[in-house]
Amino acid sequence: MVEQDESQRLSDILKAASDVTRRAILTLLVQQGPTRVTALAEHFDTSLNSVSKHIKVLESAGLVSRKTLGRVHLIEANMAPIREIDRWFGQLRLLWDMRLERLDEILQPGDKDD
Predict the structure, then answer these.
(1) What number is the average pLDDT over the span 63-83?
(2) In this predicted model, which residue has the larger pLDDT, 88 or 32?
(3) According to the 3-state scheme, what is the secondary structure of the chain?
(4) CATH code assigned to 2-78
C-alpha cells in the first residue's frame, strides 16, 4: 500500500510538471524566490485565472506552496518533490547501468578454461 501511495505521488508530481507553463512557473519561482501570483501572471500571454489554475495544480502536487499576507498571495517553489523525481530517475539509471555492465560481461571474451 505504501509503495502504491508513493507511486501515485510520483505520478501526480510528474503530471503537474508535464505542462510547459507549469514548468515555466517553477523555473521563475526558483530563479526569483517567493513571487506574487499577479507578478507571475505578467510573464505569460494568458489570463490571471489561467495562471492561478496552473498554480493550484502545482500546489496539489506539492511543487509550490502559498503564503497569504493580507491580500497578497506569495507562491514559493518546493524542491522536495523534485528530489523525489531525481531519486526515481537515479534508480532507473542504476538499473540501466547494471544491465549495461551485464551486457559488457557477456560480450567480453572471458578467461575461460578451454
Answers:
(1) 93
(2) 32
(3) CHHHHHHHHHHHHHHHHCCHHHHHHHHHHHHHCCEEHHHHHCCCCCCHHHHHHHHHHHHHCCCEEEEEECCEEEEEECCHHHHHHHHHHHHHHHHHHHHHHHHHHHHCCCCCCC
(4) 1.10.10.10
Which residue carries 534508480 as its cell?
A: 91
Domain regions of the chain by residue span: 2-78
Closest CA to 25 of 66, 83, 70: 66
In this structure, of 14-18, 37-41, 82-86, 108-112, the range with the lowest mean pLDDT score is 108-112
What is d(CA 54, CA 23) in angstroms, rounded to the nearest whole number? 10
Q: Is 30 within 8 Å of 58 (Cβ atoms)?
A: no
Whole-structure pTM value? 0.75
